[in-house]
Every structure is written in structure tokens, then in C-alpha cells.
Amino acid sequence: MSRRVVITGGNRGLGLATARALAQAGDHVILTARDAEKAQAAAAALQAEGLAVDGAALDVSSDASVEAFFAAAGPVDVLINNAGVASDKSHGGSTLGVPPSSGLVAFDTNTLGAWRTLRQVLPGMNARGYGRVVNVSSGMGGLTEMDGGWPGYRISKAALNAVTRIFSHETRGDVKVNSVCPGWVRTDMGGPHATRGLEEGIAGIVWAAGLPADGPNGGFFRDGVPLAW
């Protein structure tokens, strides 16, 4: 079955690699970015590989952008909430050096972005009886792994995990909402010294996007293994 997949923040890094993997598996992917030209250029590169991928503008920090995009997108079978920012970086990541206003920037994209998109897709998924939502989170947002630094990023990802739990209780039929930690991956955000490559990073995302009917709902995973919250 070819599914319609929407990936936020899909023009590079984990999002682009996930788009390629799911399209190679036979899905029709719409990869999105805030900049329409970047989204379309990324999609064109995958189209040149013979893959069914489209590019579109979507700013998950904007109610209007989210509503307009999903009004035009049609039914969505799989949603990958991958768009994210690390606004702490411009302040060095130090806990005391990061102003709360920077945390609000992270929260608006990393947490509320998923909240906005879930409100758009979940009713349709429930009505059709099938859907997979993958919220790309981080071990930095898990309370059991949490230490100092990067407060905006950590808090926004911890809150994203709460979004996962809350919305998973609103699912009906074969609809699942899960959080996935890809690990520390060598991307523009992760940097060149990260310990994992893209293929390792997306493996858990692809796994959660393809869960069988008896798979988990409302969990937090890394490499398909449950993580403590």
C-alpha cells in the first residue's frame, strides 16, 4: 500500500533522509520546509532518483501556514514531525546564559509545531481508521537522561513527549502517535562530531512510521527500544 506521508523540516538532514527511505519503500512523500524553494529543490533531487516526492512550504510555528497546508494536502496517512530548532546554540547552550525568550522560540517550533499539525491530521486518521505519527524527539528531553545546559531545547523536547502521550489517548482504530529519539546524528544541527550517521538516525523513525497494527502507541523509543521518560 502506498501511503501519503508528510514530513516537516524535510529539506535536509534527518527529514530528507527519511523522505528518501520512505519513498524508496513505495510511499508518496510530501517534504516540507519554511522556504518553498528549498523544499522544492530537495524534492526535485529525490524525483531525479525516480521517487514519488513533492515539496511544499510549511511553517509549523504559524497557525495560518499549518491550516493552509493541510487544507490543501488531502488525506495524510503518516506524519513525521521532524521540524526543530536549537535556539540555545546562539547563546552557547549554557543554562544560565540562555534567556527564556530563546526557550520560547524552541517551544513554538519543537512542541507547538507538533501540536498544531496533530490537530490537523488526527481527526482524518481516526475517521479512516489508520495513521502513524512520529514525533522526532531527543534523549535530551527525557527526564531520566537530563542534565545541565541547552534548557530551551531540553524543555521543548520534554514537552513534545508530553504532546505524544496526550494525543495518543485521542487515537481511534489503527492510529498511533509515538516519540522517537534518533540519537546524536551528524547533521547541520548535530554537527560533525556527532556519533551517528544519517542511516542510524532515521532507522527508528522509519520503524515507528511502519509499525504494525499491534505495535505500540504513546511510547518513547530509540532504535525501536523503549526509553524511560
Total count of domains: 1
Mean pLDDT, rounded to whole units?
A: 96
**Secondary structure tally: strands:** 8
Going across the biggest sheet, name each strand in turn: 3-2-1-4-5-6-7-8
Strand content: 15-25%
Note down, in words, how this protein is organized:
It is a single chain. With 229 residues, this protein is of the alpha/beta class. It has a single domain, classed as 3-Layer(aba) Sandwich (Rossmann fold), CATH 3.40.50. It contains 6 helices and 8 strands; from the N terminus they run βαβαβαβαβαβαββ. The protein has helices at residues 13-24, 36-47, 63-73, 100-128, 151-168, 198-209, and strands spanning 4-7, 28-33, 53-57, 78-81, 130-136, 174-180, 220-222, 225-226. Helix 1 (13-24) crosses helix 6, helix 3 runs parallel beside helix 4 (100-128) and helix 4 packs parallel to helix 5 (151-168). It is globular, with a radius of gyration of 16 Å. The termini are far apart.
